[in-house]
Amino acid sequence: MSPTTYTPPLPGLTADGNLDTIINWGAGADSTAYLAKMLTAPRAHGIDLDRTAVLYMATGSEWPETRLLADEFMIPLLRENGVRFVQLARNGHLQADGFTILDDSRHPEQLVARGPWTLWDDQ
Asked: What are phi and psi of 7, to 5 degrees?
């Protein structure tokens, strides 16, 4: 299997009838605008928030302002809408090291800043 087709198994994130939309949130301006649009007008975009999960990969290097703004605006929006928010982090440099699920909740409290491995560890 090539690296571009690798899909790590994550509990409950399969096409098994319980989940039909996964949104990858990178915490930048574009993905934040997209996520806010989906959360504030889901029906206009054919999104069922009960069948949606938002994934965030903690890189360990988000700007402090990014974390503050996420905690002030986006986390409450996710919580108010009861959207499943899964925060992940890599365990190491290699694919084989796998991932850690830092938080998996429909009532998130904050953006997790880092996990066991960061992008800076790779530099």
From this structure: -125, 110
